Amino acid sequence: MRVIAGSARSLPLRTVQGMETRPTTDRIKETLFNILAPWVPGTRFLDLFAGSGAIGIEALSRGAESAAFIDNSRQAQSVIRQNLNFTHLADKGRVIAGDVVRNVTGMDGERPFGIIFMDPPYDKGLEFEVLRALQDNSICTHETLIVVEASQETDFSKAEELGYRIERVKEYGKKNKHVFLRKA
What domains are there in the chain, each with its CATH number? Predict the structure, then answer.
């Protein structure tokens, strides 16, 4: 796994060992950032269930103002810090330890993020818990673009019930998809 483009282009990234995380492939990451390209420069980026931090680091490499990374795994937190240091982007990154939903709720009162990306464990409903926590939270406005990586089977009608509109869905083969949302 590597950084695809920007200031840290081609630098390899460490990954979290074990089966707890599913690193986003370079091909999918490149497709995702081709879609996100207009919104990344100068934005505040939030990477939830961050794993190795590869998505937030890609955003920083492509010109995001800052990125916050939340993961409850100590190993993931360590890997993110190592990757930020190796790519010389540590001054723009903030690693937050602990439960994603609890930390998102605790961030209420902070400045909004331009992009919120989440890649929760598939088929556990965690994306909807996060969307619920973002409903009346200052870190997510009507302009914030929320991107959820999910299994193909995940039904996002619940997101619409929570007050979000689906702007786009990008499917990758038979396993996963990215769903692009904003507050309605």
Answer: 27-183 (3.40.50.150)
Question: What sign for the dihedral angle of Cα 112, 117, 121, 123?
Answer: positive
| CB distance 127 to 115 below 8 Å | no
Give me the phi and psi of 131, to 5 degrees please.
Answer: -60, -40
Q: Which of 21, 47, 50 has the alpha carbon at shortest distance from 36?
A: 47
Using CA atoms, how far residue 137 sits from 4, 62, 65, 141, in Å, is 32, 27, 21, 8
The phi, psi pair for 35, rounded to 5°, reads -70, -40
Helix ranges, the chain (H): 26-36, 54-61, 74-86, 100-106, 126-134, 157-161
Q: What is the pTM of this model?
A: 0.95
| The two three-digit tokens of residue 43, written as one number | 């934005």
CB atoms within 10 A of CB 94: 14
* Residue 88, helix vs strand vs coil: coil
Pick from 86, 87, 92, 85: which is nearest to 69 by CA? 92
Per residue in 93-152, pLDDT (tens digit) is 999 999 999 999 999 999 999 999 999 999 999 999 999 999 999 999 999 999 999 999
